[in-house]
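Practice record 12: protein with iron/sulfur cluster.
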Amino acid sequence: MNTYHIWTIGCQMNVADSQRLATALEHLGLQAVDKPRDADVVVLNSCVVRQSAEDKVVGTLGLMKPLKQAREGRVLALMGCMVGHKTDDLRARFPHVDTFMRPQQYGPLLDLLGERMGLDWEGCVGNLAPERPSVTSYVPVIHGCDLMCTFCIIPYRRGRQVSRPVDEVVREVELLVQRGVREVTLLGQTVDAYGQDLPDAPDLADLLYALAPIDGLARLRFLTSHPMFMSARIIEAVASLDKVCDHVNIPIQAGDDEVLARMRRRYTRKEYLDLIHGIRAAIPGVSLSTDVIVGFPGETREQYARTVDVVREVEFDKVHAAAYSTRPGTIAARRMPDDVSAEEKSYRLKELDRLQAEILARKNAGLLGRPVEVLVDGRNKGRWQGRTKSDKLVFFEDERDRLGDLAMVEITKTGPWSLQGVPAGVAAPV
Ligand code: SF4
């Protein structure tokens, strides 16, 4: 057992889980390889939040079958939200998979490898923070979710809410900063519920205040929030701490109260809009993003139009829109027929996308000629790329090595989805 490959699909939490498993495998002496065919250990980290993601996992599992047969002893593991409490069904469907792991439960694979390699993995595997993190890094701070929205499979797969203690998160972020990280995104399915399950119940604001003083850390972000937990204290922390980016992701999911009630989102459209106004009043210029589901069971055109109204009124900086798909095991799957046609869902998605493109083209045009601060996190087609504090993607050319810099960039071209610029003080090419 010398090499491993991890294939990941899904949310940032899955990316963070894969990074942590990679650290554990490296502690066992395995090396990462780019292609599964070169790996002794192949892990698929799965997502079942939408049917399209599950289909991709099933397709990739099929591709792994000949690969598994081609090398004796090769280990194939399935991890993530496709794996529930019971794995009998999965074992029957995918007999070529050696082991199944629920999210963040790396034990079954490590036990198997320990056995094959003749070592006690618990003695080898230490802190799971990535060994070679990128400039921007994810840190899970709360796992699971207690809310049980009717459409969502996550509580059934990731379990109840469990927060990591403040001092443990602080130690991990300090370590990441020593390893070159400049920006940390604190992750949770409901990150603003952080701490409710801990002794003394610290909240996300306490965690942000504890992390902000870390020397060398340039920026902090957090996602995803639930409107019900977004407190005045958290908003105040974002407003007052310079390192905390003025960007809040706060899913609305639907703009109609009846649909929200059937989704069991626990807020009304008015309560959501009041919260948005409160955030904007406390953090002038804040960038806001949201998640929307179109075609929830029973959602009429008129009800969907109320979602469009909210998107038009709020002018979000990003809208992640998705078509509803039934997730077996959820409350909606048991009680609500998926009765909005695929064509209608596709129409609604396209309309929202067009509206959002118009809004962003107009908003971003206001940045033309202005300098923005960009945390440079990589190269793309020969240009540097990074994000502003408000999470806008910016590309610029510079001969110098800018990786990890907070670069001032003057915006020379804008579009709905990204911005282009030149280092501030350097003339734009004609
Ligand atoms: S808040 Fe709702 S949508 Fe978000 S993870 Fe929990 S159950 Fe799923």
